[in-house]
């Protein structure tokens, strides 16, 4: 990584400042992408926002910022976005601060006070290096302040036409991906969480490699078509919608099971039974279970301490399998008839077994 420290005045940064709302915020005479398209909204509260201006008016230093040049030849802010927006909005007259007991916008200040703000120098590191180096460094500097998410960091590295298209599809309020899948996915659009999920699914977790491979594509149709296929597969396989379906790792399920044939009616009947089973404590895990058969997804209810003690006393401390006597601390409970065979988690179906037998190892 290479870093060059420069002093940039507020007057230079606010030159050409335009807030296009969801389309982004531009400054520095059109060369600085202050907030890229469909990134998160401004999040500073009034107290923190005003404190930035108070510090500058009094000549106090504010923390160094970091800019990086993107593939389009513009700069993007990697650290300092909220401070920069606070400054630009104040200069634009969007809000007042209290000066000598009175609320004053930038336009209400004297010419001398205005010039003092415009001449204030911000300390900015310009960063350059390979993709991995940038991401590693940005994660280090992203420790304090209003933290960027991992996907926001990646977006700054892999900016370009492909990313603009992807954010249009996955990050804009009421975007196509959200409207299609809002019942099945969760996460914040403006914090790039839906976009991150879609890329993670299609790349099987290799997000940065996928973004690097596609950075210079002219559109994100491959990602969009894949995402549609995932949701359509979910709706076909599980037509009976339930709230427990929201937020599951549907892309991973699709990647693994999309080519298998399922009896949709039989799946629905099994899901209904499992939803009513009080021993199934993780209802969201039902969907993975009916696909994989892995009982661990259900978090089957275990026996409580009172049930274990009652069973231990009834057995007189004798292991139900090997017939030897053990202290209760050396034993644990298990189902006589397993849950999968229809056994329930109740005292009649409880037996105490030594931990050796419980692991399936018989004494010699």
Characterization of this structure:
The strands form three sheets. A seven-stranded mixed beta sheet has the order 1-9-5-6-4-3-2, with helices on both faces. Strands 7-8 form a two-stranded antiparallel sheet. It has a two-stranded antiparallel ribbon with strand order 10-11. The chain is built from 16 helices and eleven strands. The chain is of the alpha+beta class and 364 residues long. The relative contact order is 0.08. The chain folds into four domains: 2-159, no CATH class; 168-260, no CATH class; 261-301; 305-358, DNA Binding (I), subunit A, CATH 1.10.30.50. The model has no long low-confidence stretch (mean pLDDT 89).
Short précis:
The protein has 364 residues and is α+β, with helices and mostly antiparallel strands.
Keywords:
364 residues; 14% strand; two-stranded antiparallel sheet; 4 domains; seven-stranded mixed sheet; alpha+beta
Distance between the termini: 63 Å
Assign the structural class, choosing from mainly alpha, mainly beta, alpha/beta, alpha+beta, or little secondary structure.
Answer: alpha+beta
- Proportion of helical residues: 40-55%
Query: Which of globular, elongated, flat, extended, rod-shaped describes the shape?
Result: elongated
Could you name the ranges where pLDDT drops below 50 across 5 or more consecutive residues?
A: none
Largest sheet data: 7 strands, mixed
Total of DSSP H or I helical runs spanning 4+ residues: 16
Radius of gyration: 29 Å
Strand order of the largest sheet: 1-9-5-6-4-3-2
Strand content: 5-15%
Secondary-structure element series:
EHEEEHEEHEEHEHHHHHHHHHHHEEH
Number of DSSP-assigned strands:
11
Average the pLDDT over all residues and give the rounded result: 89
